[in-house]
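Researcher: Before we compare anything, I want clean individual predictions. No alignment, no superposition, just each chain on its own. First chain goes here; please echo the sequence and then give the structure tokens.
Model: Echoing the first chain and its structure:
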Amino acid sequence: MKIKNCLSPFVVLALTFNLTATHIQKTPDISELDITPKKIDQLGITNPDKLSAASKRALMWPDDLSSEWFFEYNVYDLKGDLAYEEGVVRRDPSALIKHSGKYYVWYTKSVGPRDGFGGDISKEKVFPWDRSDIWYATSKDGLTWEEQGLAVPRGEPGAYDDRSVFTTEIMEWEGKYYLCYQVVGGDYVVRVKNEVGLAWADSPDGPWTKSKEPILSPADNGIWKGEEQNRFIVEKKGDFDSHKVHDPCIIPYKGKFYLFYKGEQMGEEITWGGREIRHGVAIADNPKGPYVKSEYNPISNSGHEICVWPYNGGIASLITTDGPEKNTVQWSLDGINFEIMSVVKGAPHAIGINRTIDPEEEPLAALRWGLTHQYMNPDYQYIRGFKTRRIIRHVAAGAPGTK
């Protein structure tokens, strides 16, 4: 099938719902398509001269609808210190790296139940990730883990990170190690601004040196309405990241450092895709910054936790949970303009991607196995493992072609 504009697999979803595909000037008209009998047969279209809107969209799909970007998954319990522990929160695992024959992971750790915003915020714990520090663990086989201790603590009173440090990600670069993470300073009120901090070390076992200031902050162009601690009441919403910058992940890319992050907007709304969540990127020449936000932000229409990896000269991204493009795998040649490559049934939460696997082996090699977190209940979460599998056919058990 010949299409006037070059579409990646399933990018038509963005067109269907009038979303943005940055390299496309206009939606192709059905008259511009070279509709072949083979395509009509493949799509099971009964009358080519009487096309429903769905059939027209299908005819805009490219010929290559392979399953190399599609996966399903299962999760399983870990052994050792990362198994569930009553009264303890362990969540948001970082990527996995390997050093001296051992896997390493960093994660958010706190103790005790969460209290919400109803009590004395100066004394209580608002969320499971409130009053948290970053800890780490090691494993010889990726299944049985031994907790090694505190990696990055909260700051001293008055520091920008004195309330909580959490949701970390690891980057190894030229023999040094970098942890980026979310921070909250002061009282964790509803309208508090979340920022991103950075720590670095010569060894994955530390000691870690923390940045004196945040390396990324929310946009400052939103305006709250009134004094009430209500995040949904605004005079002006501002940029997509005017309230919080979350889930940071730094990727070395094309001689620079791309800090991908989740943005939350002041006055966030529930839209036809759910929560109003989008991703952005900030770029630096040095791992320690300064990081400058891309003029093209936001770079996604949807998403939640950041899960990105290099592939085929570009960057792949798993978009989950929120927005009209949730549960898609996307890819970008420049790290900014992403296209939908597949639609998946769902994905593990807060994926700790596996950086020990060569991501160039195949599109989803980096997702072959890794870590995730799961809620035991609203107060306590724990870290589990996950594995993915590529689905080639759908057949009954025992039938020819089963795989």
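Researcher: Okay. Second chain, same rules.
Model: Second chain and its structure:
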Amino acid sequence: MSDINKVVLAYSGGLDTSVIAKWLQQTYDCEVVTFTADIGQGEEVEPARLKAEAMGITEIYIEDLREEFVRDYVNPMFRANALYEGEYLLGTSIARPLIAKRLVKIAAETNADAISHGATGKGNDQVRFELGAYALSPGIKVIAPWRTWDLNSRDKLLTYCAQNNISVEKKLGTKSPYSMDANLLHISYEGDVLEDPGTEPEENMWLWSVSPEAAPDVATYIELEYERGDIVAIDGEKMSPATVLAKLNRVGGANGIGRADIVENRYVGMKARGCYETPGGTIMLKGHRAMESMTLDRELAHLKDELMPRYATLIYNGYWFSPERIALQTLIDESQRFVNGKVRLKLYKGNVVVVGRESQDSLFDEAVATFEDDAGAYNQGDAEGFIKLNALRLRIAAQKGRV
């Protein structure tokens, strides 16, 4: 292990990564550099600096990446209307490539020999971190302690902390807490009672939203303004990408929007049950599809819908930096040139309802669509030939007795 002299660790300041920092020092007799990303997880990140310093770490990176996260990762993903397995808005998945990108860049800046992360050997995040790192730095070395050490329980981690004078906040005894991951797009919950798919989540588990039953009895109306598929203003007020998402999280959570309870197929092969709160993302998806319904050509919209599951799976599995995802993104971004305008939404007790949309780039033509006199804008008689031509193969098959 003498070839490892310095490691850059993705460091949250929590129990797992604090143990990993000390474990790396002891196991590899190496210098540790910590990298803590503020991607809107809602917790103070500066305390991570004090914990790192207490372990003798001198190179400490703490970065506010909220705007970059939403602008360069969340927004491009929502232009595709991405949903994994029809339900998951990919809140954890989309944060990993940004963290991987910064890890390898810091490794280059500090002349580190390797990077390290706190993802377990059972989950998707190990794949996402490492695929991202290898895509950007093919020769990078990765240390994943959870795949090699024997500290495989909370009790063992706490014992290790006591033996090595590592401070631990919020000790919860022997009962495993929820495993949570948060960023500006969502918060996820796994473990504890959720490991039984038949058990309803406890109400006090949810942190970002009120229950639909407890949401206000009066609907909230909001207006989203779009430019090239991205929200640029709410109720007429121009906002940065991160500010938009933070605002939608607040108003969505207050109206009981964005909860999901999913059994999903992990890339490593197992099924896992997770609960998610994505209030802002739920609103974004509804609004974006409404805007596209006005402005996208039919076949282009249908092509996007056909490609979306593949695109979503690429992100879920960790292939953000793959050539196929980049190629798909080019098509998706081109499709958004005319996705401009405004969408009006009603938020009520967990529901997001589209109540209005307008666009200078709309393809909706009232003169053609009307049920009233269309003044010759559409010749209804043309439909007869259209139907007969499309029925030709069906009629031939029927004549041959194939139906």
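Researcher: What stands out in the second chain?
Model: Residues 298-317 form the longest helix (20 residues). Additionally, The chain has three domains: 6-66+90-163, 179-358, 368-399.
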